[in-house]
């Protein structure tokens, strides 16, 4: 009974945190995030939260390696991962609230996302819990687009941001989150769901990458 109750508790927590992420993603009003702003703005800047996202990676790593066969340890790693993912939303809100949308922050934010997702995907592949092919495609896409972005900046080509990049990041976060938990929870086959979501996020990533490449060539003055 105790095991069943703890299993149910983890399931309820999983559901509430997932719905919390979805709700926070839809809510762009600073006024409606007053609690988060009041809590963080006294102690941290947006860049602190971005750096924290990277600093949490070793703790997630340690939990996944040490507790690879322990549900509660994996679940604890997942909780840290969820918090790290939420900082991706919070740092943007905090930067706007504090008027500190710096060039450093604009550089660090996408890099922190790539370190968080990319490093965990590599670990999941090593643990046999994520398809190597999809991980190679996702990481290769990031290298190619980052290289193209550098070329565009050097040539003075301006490419407007699209929603595809943010959708790509969110879908990857959900995929990695389910793969971290791995074991079935409240009847949800987390590993299988994570693999399906990773396929979907790979398709979104490749599509958004294609759109970026197309936008680059359309923006060239001598195309």
TrEMBL record:
Xref: PROSITE patterns: CDP_ALCOHOL_P_TRANSF (PS00379)
Keywords assigned by UniProt, alphabetized: Lipid biosynthesis, Lipid metabolism, Membrane, Phospholipid biosynthesis, Phospholipid metabolism, Transferase, Transmembrane, Transmembrane helix
Ligase keyword on record: no
Transmembrane stretches, start-end: 34-60, 72-90, 115-139, 170-189, 195-219
Protein's GO biological process: glycerophospholipid biosynthetic process
Pfam families found in the cross-reference section: CDP-OH_P_transf
GO CC, one annotated term: membrane
Membrane topology: Multi-pass membrane protein
4Fe-4S keyword on record: no
One term of GO molecular function: CDP-diacylglycerol-glycerol-3-phosphate 3-phosphatidyltransferase activity
Location(s), subcellular: Membrane
Primary location group: membrane
Family from the record: Belongs to the CDP-alcohol phosphatidyltransferase class-I family.
Name under which the protein is recorded: CDP-diacylglycerol--glycerol-3-phosphate 3-phosphatidyltransferase
Organism: marine metagenome
């Amino acid at each position: 009974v105790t095991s069943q109750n703890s299993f149910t508790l983890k399931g309820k927590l999983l559901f509430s945190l997932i719905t919390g992420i979805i709700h926070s993603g839809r809510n762009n009003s600073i006024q409606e995030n007053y609690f988060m702003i009041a809590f963080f703005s006294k102690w941290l800047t947006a860049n602190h939260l971005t750096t924290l996202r990277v600093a949490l990676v070793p703790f997630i790593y340690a939990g996944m390696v040490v507790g690879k066969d322990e549900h509660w340890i994996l679940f604890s790693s997942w909780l840290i991962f969820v918090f790290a993912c939420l900082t991706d939303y919070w740092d943007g809100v905090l930067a706007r609230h504090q008027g500190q949308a710096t060039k450093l922050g604009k550089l660090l934010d996408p890099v922190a996302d790539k370190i968080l997702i990319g490093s965990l995907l590599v670990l999941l592949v090593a643990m046999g819990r994520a398809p190597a092919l999809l991980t190679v495609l996702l990481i290769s896409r990031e290298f190619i687009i980052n290289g193209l972005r550098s070329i565009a900046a050097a040539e003075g080509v301006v490419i407007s941001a699209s929603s595809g990049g943010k959708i790509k990041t969110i879908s990857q976060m959900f995929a990695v989150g389910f793969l971290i938990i791995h074991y079935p929870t409240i009847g949800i086959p987390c590993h299988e769901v994570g693999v399906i979501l990773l396929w979907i996020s790979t398709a979104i990533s490749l599509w958004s990458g294609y759109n970026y490449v197309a936008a680059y060539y359309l923006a060239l003055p001598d195309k």
